[in-house]
Amino acid sequence: MNAEDLFAAIGGVESSRLERSEMTVSSRTTFTEETDRNKKRHRKAFPKIVAAVLIAVMIPVTAVAAVGFLMFDDPVQMIGALFGNRTGTDNVQWTVPDNQGDPAAEYHADRVPVDENAAGALAPYAEAVSKSITFGENTLTVDANLYDAGTRCGFLTYSIENPNGIRKYAVQPDGEVWFPEGELLVSNLYGKSYIIREKCTDTTLCATYFYRNTDKTNDRLELRLSFFAATEDPEAALRGNGKDSGDSVVIGLKKNSVLPSAAFGDNAVALSPFSVRVDHGQPALGSYVRELKLIFRDGSEYTVKDDTTLNCLFEVTNNELTETTLMLNRIADVNDVVAVVVNGVRFEK
Questions:
Q1: 3-state secondary structure string, 201-267?
Q2: 48 SS3 class
Q3: In Å, how far are 46, 78, 137, 338 from 164, measured between CA atoms?
Q4: pLDDT confidence of 15, banded at 50, 70, 90?
Q5: Is the model's pLDDT at 9 over the cut of 70?
């Protein structure tokens, strides 16, 4: 880890490449989940997804639309599973080592139960996508999507299936999942994938892609399978032509899909139910977020980030260092939040 990596890990600005290094530089903090680990898990959880894949095989097109939600019974159940405290990574801690392998920073994350009323209020904004593409022996199926045009953040559920067994992947202590031998999922938007353990099998990985639309003029999310998906030999893939799947799943990002939100400190902070955007226009804030807390009506606090806490699924700062956006690991009732504290500065509604 170089000096820039260490700075980012201890509390500096995250770039799209730096945050992953926070928890992957040491094998001591990386959890690898082989396919045989999932063999006994919920084999009956995927009849609908299998059906969708079979349809994709039988009909001579590369993207197939199905009806309804595939992975969960309804949006409320989906939101509860993704943002609740039964993910398997609910109260975790990890250490970020320095370039000598010694501890440089320690973090923890804590999840809370999802408020059913808050989940119900979000449910109408979720849309079933139900589209699949196949490349090599891997099939990508995008299930559902929920986007907030206000903070330009969203999340979608997806699966990658390989009938011969899903390629080895790694899971971080907080649930972030990735493929060490070459990522299979490619997107035009910045984001991170988090595992949905209860839905995985030995042949299927299920995950949520939490993303941020960094371009205000962009109105679509595109997902492809990478060239690594075309062969089971990663080294052969690197020697190949390096082309990703020609087909993609395209999701329109509706500009009128604005979730209930709240503004604090004359729009210095914007809060949606699952994301928060900080404007660094005030000199007192500096150019990155060191600390962020939500203050609720009853006086209780929720720490999103401080020196030892990372209750955010990602943090991204624009190139000009004027705006930072964080994706929360819980659903917040924006009407119940009375103030937001950023770097020691308290912003009221």
A1: CCCEEEEEEEEECCCCCCCEEEEEECHHHHCCCHHHHHHCCCCCCCCCEEEECCCCCCCCCEEECCC
A2: helix
A3: 16, 28, 8, 52
A4: very low
A5: no
